[in-house]
Amino acid sequence: MKILKNLGYLLGLPVLLVLIWWAATLGTTNFFVPTPANLVKTFGEVWFGERFFTDVLPSIWRLVVGVVAAIVIGVVGGVLIGSIRWLRALLEPTLEFFRAIPPPVLVPVLMLLMGITDSMKVVVIISGCL
Asked: 3-class SS at 101?
């Protein structure tokens, strides 16, 4: 019985908020505040339609490639830089410079240098992870 009570508390507020939202947006056509029904319809189109294969899967693939590449670069580079004293002395100023730059700042620079391609998007993910 306690589990049902806890489940009721856990789900009660979100359900109540969605019901209030649904009632508040009935009959409106506001672009900035879509109705829950419109969101459910769009969710179904994206996740169970053609857009899943053209939009979602390529994004997940770029994310996986970027994170795996960042892990490999980080581990191999960290071991090398940590093991070889002269390499650390050589690369430390450059690494400290890039560490001070927020990754979102690199996005426009990479767009100019590489164009808006999949490889640019992967490089942005790698720079954000490193």
From this structure: coil
Q: Which residues, 6 or more positions from 3, have their beta carbon under 8 angstroms from its beta carbon? A: none
Cα angle vertex 34, ends 12, 56, to 5°? Answer: 90
H/E run at residue 99: helix 85-100
Q: Cα separation of 118 and 40, whole Å?
A: 29
Tokens of 57: 């899967």
Cα-based angle 112, 64, 108 (whole degrees, multiple of 5): 15
pTM score of the predicted model: 0.66
What's the rounded Cα separation, in Å, for the pair 29 and 64?
38
Alpha-carbon span 72 to 93, nearest angstrom: 22
Distance between CA atoms of 24 and 26, rounded to whole angstroms?
6
Please give the Cα distance from 104 to 127 (Å, whole number). Answer: 9
Look-up of token digits 């990479």: 110
pLDDT in tens, 50-100: 888 888 889 999 999 999 999 999 999 999 998 999 999 999 999 888 888
How far is residue 108's CA from residue 85's CA, in Å, rounded to a whole number?
34
